[in-house]
Amino acid sequence: MIKNCSDEAMEVADDAYCRICLVFEPDPRDNEALMLLDIAEEVPNDVLVSLGCGCREELSLVHYACALKWFNIKGLKASCEVCGVSPSGISMAHRLKARRFQFRNWLLENDMPERVPELAAANDDMVARIVTFAEWLNN
Ligand SMILES: [Zn+2]
Ligand SMILES: [Zn+2]
To answer: Which domain of life is it from (predicted)?
Structure first.
């Protein structure tokens, strides 16, 4: 189980798992998704982090990328389904970034890139990033 050390470091036991994907090891594609979002350097995805809701620590552990997916499905301001508390462990700026990528993908799919000037001007590389990220997000 989880030990809370006095120096605030948290040791996650071998039997800990992500409450969203239900496994300990992150999916390698998750890290690619964080790279597409350009936040892979800012957030840990090789370890479990706390969702930051009111649930006990071992019940609130998630992969950062899994949590982004979860917010995208449940809503940007979704509360924990178990304790009802709004999670503080995942940056709102990152939730918005993921949502923006998905919205831009939707505009591309519906042939309306001109709705967002940046998207209308996006190069092939940016478009590929948006599409790949949205595929991951919707999987
Ligand atoms: Zn996970
Ligand atoms: Zn909770």
So the answer is: Eukaryota
